Amino acid sequence: MGGAADHSGLGPAEQGSRYQTVPVDLGPPDLEISLQLDPHAPRAARYHVAQVDRPSPDLRDAVILLTSELVTRAAQYSRPGSDEAVQLRVWMPADVVRVELRAPRELLLPPAEREGPHYGLVLLDQVADRWSIEPTEALACAWFEIDRHRHEAEPEQEPQRQPRPRRRSLARRLRSRTAH
Fold first, then answer.
1. Alpha-carbon distance 180 to 177, whole Å?
2. What digits encode the pLDDT tens for the residues 114-173?
3. I want to staple 98 with a disulfide (CB 3.0 to 4.6 A). Which of 35, 59, 91, 133 is the partner?
4. Can you tell me the distance from the alpha carbon of 157 to that of 166, in angstroms, rounded to the nearest whole number?
5. In the Cβ-directed half-sphere of 75, how many Cα atoms lie within 13 Å?
6. Rounded to an integer, what distance in angstroms lies between the CA atom of residue 142 and that of residue 133?
7. Residue 154 burial by CB count (10 A; 0-12/13-18/19+): exposed, middle or buried?
8. Cα torsion angle, 133, 134, 136, 139, sign
9. 3-class secondary-structure state, position 67
10. 3-class secondary structure, 91
């Protein structure tokens, strides 16, 4: 982090529409784990991220969704049966949530010949306040940030419950049928 990312060869989606090169000192991460890239990696990532903090349900769901998308992206491009792993780091201070996924470059930046929509990147663009995929020679770091105040300032709306009509219990209905 800290310097400008090399976005050569990246399409607009991989660059992050709200990309900012702001050096952020968040201190040590609240979560730092290595995940083996297998079919269970996205589930493991969701589980571990959900254990870090108790943010509002909307913020928690957004962080879990985007983390799962990043890990799924890496898992999809990994070689079957390989021992590849990714490093997941999460910070959840009072003002912002930051998630980083460090992986071999080819797992986060697939070759240009792989066409088609990258739905995980569309989700990043729609949900995260800032995000980017920053490649180096061997590794890449995909990260996103979500401002806490935006999600936690919104009051949760309880769904309006309509009163249910009183129903007689099954036993009363059966008794009334046999009494006639």
1. 6
2. 566 666 688 898 999 999 999 988 899 999 999 987 654 554 555 555 555 555 555 565
3. 91
4. 26
5. 18
6. 4
7. exposed
8. negative
9. helix
10. strand
Q: Give per-residue burial for 160-173: e unless 16+ CB within 10 Å, then b.
A: eeeeeeeeeeeeee
Place of tokens 């995260």: 128
pLDDT, one tens digit per residue, over 70-99 is 999 899 888 887 888 999 999 998 889 999
Do the bridges between strand 139-147 and strand 130-135 make them parallel or antiparallel, or are there none, so unpaired?
antiparallel
**pTM (2 d.p.):** 0.70
Beta strands in the chain, from DSSP E residues, in sequence order: 31-36, 85-91, 96-104, 130-135, 139-147
Q: Kindly list the structural domains of the chain, giving each domain's residue range(s) and its CATH number in brackets, ordered by start.
A: 12-156 (3.30.565.10)
For residues 91 and 30, is the Cβ–Cβ distance under 8 A?
yes
Whether 115 contacts 165, CB under 8 Å: no
Q: How far is 120 from 127, CA to CA, in rounded Å?
A: 10
Residue 2 tokens read as 């800290």
Measured CA to CA, the distance from residue 68 to residue 124 in angstroms comes to 11
Structure tokens at 83: 């021992």
150's tokens? 């935006």
User: What 8-state DSSP symbol labels residue 59?
Assistant: H
Nearest to 16 by CA among 113, 103, 129: 129
